[in-house]
């Protein structure tokens, strides 16, 4: 079976394999494009990213903005009221008297303002979270929908891990930006402007001194954050490498144990585990240093403020109350600046993630309907291949001019050495790839001229590696036709001899099978996939026979099931069993992408050519 259809392949990490995108370190489990943590700003991409917020903007934004203004105004008013309380009620200047009433009034106003601020921020967080989650939902579902439609050659070129990372990690890394980032950015800008204006109004000299320290603070905070973020990204990368390895180790556990490679695997895992630990230690150390450093820098700012403030008070240019207000404004100043630095970091990460997400979303399925594609009417099943040439990669022909005429209802067996092109032919019939030249017609329709869905819905495929999804046995059969009733499901199961073993399972048809159906034997999985195909009732059936040897009883069951399945359909079978081959109407012997011989079993045996050799070889092994 070719890489394209075989779903049970090891991820392509090893060097030298086609479709690999190695990390620059050349290490396993690192994919080059997934390694890029940040990208420079790209406005058009940012606009595209934020366009995901558009559908919700009208609904939510006015509310969010109102809450934002309320919150900001209260935040800016409280320090000023505090200064009033000190200067006018507690310690008025010469001539004035203290006023408890005023103090109480101001305290009451401050209390109300705090309540408003609390309400405003609760609502803001609630609504920004709702918008953020909806945007992430839309993005994730757009991406998944698109990936479902992409053609085989897209997956040939990419390791599954890389696709997975985009739907999970990359989308998640935008979460913070959408839930908090955007709104915080607006709030912080408004707050900063407000604070600067107020500071300059209170005392322009002191205000200017504080404002001038802003760029310094911003640079220190941003630079530090960049280092911390990179350290955490490194931790995440090391962890996802562990996950990829784990995934492979678990999937391949049988092979590992069979070859007694456990120790080797443990050592490999240990190395990765240690790298992850070291990376975590480093990130955590940087993180711990960040808080105190920011506090010290902030403390220095406050020192300057009080030193200059005291000087101005002594020279009657400032009151004590205003100095207190000033210091709380400066405190409020830090918060938005810090967050802006954080936002800047988030944006850089978002650039890299969104670029990867959009790269997938923009990938056009290479196999798609032509603009003037017509629906393929209900077919009889006549198939014609006319000088079909196909190359997976430029310059390497997998099929070199195949001519084949199949009448409706015939069974065609494809045989030949490994790599001779058997799977390629069946891949082309369902149009998983487009042929390089020549023509394939079904009932006279060129398969490139008809709507893909109407073509594939009339072709049933049973693969060698029968994919069992996690769910019940019933769900797995129903995959063939989603609207089938329970009776229909049981009927097809009976027809292909699967009913008997299903009945014996602990929950019968409702038995849960884990992913890939590990609890079922190869033969049982085959029978299930036959039931699934029979339920779909396609006019054309493509079957890749399992090579694994099974006991004679199951073999007989499978042969009987096959007879039921093939009846009245045009079928192509990549045949391994002599019993199947013998009953085929036509046997096609492939060799290096060409038809070497064709005819029925008797005719080909008489020719004493390649086919005769293959059959002889099979018997020699028995
Ligand atoms: N996805 C792919 N990308 C590139 N080349 C491929 C791909 N799949 C198959 N090939 C190549 O095309 C040729 C025909 O492969 P194909 O899978 O059709 O052989 P096969 O007769 O089905 O072999 P087997 O019996 O081993 O399954 C081989 O040379 C193979 O290396």
TrEMBL record:
Q: Which UniProt keywords apply?
A: ATP-binding, Membrane, Nucleotide-binding, Transmembrane, Transmembrane helix
PROSITE patterns found in the cross-reference section: ABC_TM1F (PS50929), ABC_TRANSPORTER_2 (PS50893)
> Which positions fall inside the ABC transporter domain?
383-617
Bilayer topology reads: Multi-pass membrane protein
Q: Enumerate the Pfam families for this protein.
A: ABC_membrane, ABC_tran
Q: Where is the composition biased (Basic and acidic residues)?
A: 7-17
Where in the cell? Cell membrane
Record-linked CDD domains: ABC_6TM_YknV_like, ABCC_Glucan_exporter_like
Q: Which domain of life is it from?
A: Bacteria
Q: Which residues cross the membrane?
A: 60-81, 101-120, 182-202, 208-226, 290-312
On whether Nucleotide-binding is a keyword of this UniProt record, the answer is yes
Spell out the residue ranges making up region: Disordered. Answer: 1-26
InterPro entries given in the database record: AAA+_ATPase, ABC1_TM_dom, ABC1_TM_sf, ABC_transporter-like_ATP-bd, P-loop_NTPase, Type_1_exporter
Show where the ABC transmembrane type-1 domain sits: 63-347
Q: Which GO terms describe its molecular function?
A: ATP binding
Keyword Nucleotide-binding on entry: yes
Protein's name according to its UniProt entry: ABC transporter ATP-binding protein
User: What is the organism field in this record?
Assistant: Paenibacillus chibensis
Lineage of origin: Bacteria, Bacillati, Bacillota, Bacilli, Bacillales
């Amino acid at each position: 079976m070719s890489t394209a259809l075989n779903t049970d392949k090891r991820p392509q990490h090893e060097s030298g394999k086609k479709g690999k995108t190695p990390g620059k370190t050349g290490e396993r489990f690192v994919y080059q494009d997934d390694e890029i943590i940040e990208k420079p700003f790209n406005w058009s991409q940012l606009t595209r990213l934020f366009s995901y917020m558009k559908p919700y903007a009208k609904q939510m934004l006015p509310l969010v903005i109102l809450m934002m203004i309320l919150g900001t105004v209260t935040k800016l008013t409280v320090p000023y009221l505090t200064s009033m309380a000190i200067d006018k009620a507690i310690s008025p200047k010469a001539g004035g008297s203290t006023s408890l009433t005023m103090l109480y009034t101001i305290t009451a106003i401050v209390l109300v303002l705090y309540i408003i601020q609390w309400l405003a921020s609760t609502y803001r967080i609630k609504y920004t979270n709702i918008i953020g989650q909806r945007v992430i939902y839309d993005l994730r579902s757009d991406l998944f929908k698109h990936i479902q439609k992409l053609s085989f050659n897209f997956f040939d070129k990419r390791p599954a891990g890389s696709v997975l990372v985009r739907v999970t990690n990359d989308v998640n890394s935008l979460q913070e930006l959408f839930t908090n980032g955007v709104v915080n950015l607006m709030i912080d800008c408004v707050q900063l402007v407000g604070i600067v204006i107020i500071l300059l109004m209170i005392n322009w000299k002191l205000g200017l001194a504080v404002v001038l320290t802003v760029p310094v603070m911003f640079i220190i905070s941003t630079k530090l954050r960049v280092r911390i973020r990179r350290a955490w990204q490194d931790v995440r990368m090391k962890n996802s490498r562990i996950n990829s390895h784990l995934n492979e180790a678990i999937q391949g556990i049988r092979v590992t144990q069979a070859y007694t490679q456990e120790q080797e695997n443990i050592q490999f895992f240990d190395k990765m585990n240690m790298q992850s630990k070291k990376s975590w230690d480093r990130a955590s150390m940087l993180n711990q240093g960040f808080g105190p450093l920011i506090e010290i820098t902030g403390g220095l700012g406050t020192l300057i403020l009080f030193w200059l403030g005291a000087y101005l008070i002594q020279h009657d240019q400032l009151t004590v109350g205003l100095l207190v207000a000033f210091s709380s404004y400066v405190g409020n100043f830090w918060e938005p600046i810090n967050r802006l630095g954080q936002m800047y970091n988030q944006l850089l990460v978002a650039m890299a993630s969104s670029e990867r997400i959009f790269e997938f979303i923009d990938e056009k399925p290479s196999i798609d309907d032509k603009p003037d594609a017509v629906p393929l009417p209900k077919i009889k099943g006549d198939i014609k291949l006319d000088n079909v040439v196909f190359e997976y990669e430029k310059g390497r022909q997998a099929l070199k001019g195949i001519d084949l005429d199949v009448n409706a209802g015939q069974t065609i067996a494809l045989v030949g050495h490994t790599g001779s092109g058997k799977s390629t032919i069946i891949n082309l019939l369902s149009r998983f790839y487009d042929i390089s030249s020549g023509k394939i017609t079904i009932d006279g329709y060129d398969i490139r001229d008809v709507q893909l869905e109407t073509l594939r819905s009339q072709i049933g495929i049973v693969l060698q590696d029968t994919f069992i999804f996690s769910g019940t046995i019933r769900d797995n059969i129903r995959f063939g036709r989603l609207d089938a009733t329970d009776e229909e499901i049981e009927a097809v199961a009976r027809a292909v001899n699967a009913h008997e073993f299903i009945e014996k399972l602990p929950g019968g048809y409702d038995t849960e099978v884990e992913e890939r159906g590990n609890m079922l034997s190869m033969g049982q999985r085959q029978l299930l996939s036959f039931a699934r195909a029979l339920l779909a009732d396609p006019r054309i059936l493509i079957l890749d026979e399992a090579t694994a040897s099974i006991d004679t009883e199951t073999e007989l069951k499978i042969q009987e099931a096959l007879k039921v399945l093939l009846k009245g359909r045009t079928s192509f079978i990549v045949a391994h069993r002599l019993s199947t081959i013998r009953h085929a109407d036509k046997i096609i012997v492939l060799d290096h992408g060409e038809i070497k011989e064709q005819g029925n079993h008797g005719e080909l045996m008489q020719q004493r050519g390649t086919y005769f050799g293959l059959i002889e070889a099979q018997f020699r092994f028995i």
